[in-house]
Amino acid sequence: MKPAKTRQIRHVPDSWSQIPCGEFYRDALAHHLRPSLAKLYGFHLLKLGNLSAEINTEACAISHQVNVGLKGDLLQVKADPLSLPFESKSVDACLLAHTLAWSSDPHRILREVDRVLIDDGWMLISGFNLFSMLGVGKLIPGVHRMIPWNSRMFTQMRLLDWLSLLNYEVVQRSGFQVLPWSRQGGKVISTHLPALGCLNLIVARKRTFPLIINPMKKSTSKPKLQTVGATRQFHPRSPQEPD
Prior knowledge:
The structure is a single chain. The protein is built from six helices and seven strands. By secondary structure, the protein is of the alpha/beta class. The chain starts with 21 loop residues before the first helix and ends in a 25-residue tail after the last helix.
């Protein structure tokens, strides 16, 4: 297995239009994201990368949606996804539409997203499927250096392993779009053979588990009551005084 971290990847697409059949992939991804987006709620949604910025997320109830990336016309915040300029636990959901596919350090991106996500926050990840008709192009000399075959096609099992280490619960994982079109049988094949789909989608939720307090130490862990603006002096009652 190749290491996740690599050198800078060349020829990173700035738009879906720069990917062969990219508009079909974009529309198919937006269609499969719609049910998951409808379940999201909160205040802030981050869309990392130019490809994420072009995904239609109107189905999401989160009104404040921010596009983040290094360069692009649709970006509201220009920043490196490897070092997000946001406070920890300040974002409710994050969309990474093929963001990891063209990243030199996907582990660091996941850690940054995990840092800014609130507890029970949502992470939506998409990418190309290595075991598909699209993934075969990686075996052809010369083609593997062209878009989109120069992308990192991580398997779902590898992504699931990374998410489990970060303590995420996978709510949904699916494959779709076996062929880059919907006409002439493409839709039928995509319905019956989702495992061979060119696109992968994983929806995961950040989970945090509270620490269990030892009953024997529970009494000693209680904070003492601090008095403010009151006297600490008192007079003990004599035994002869009536109640």
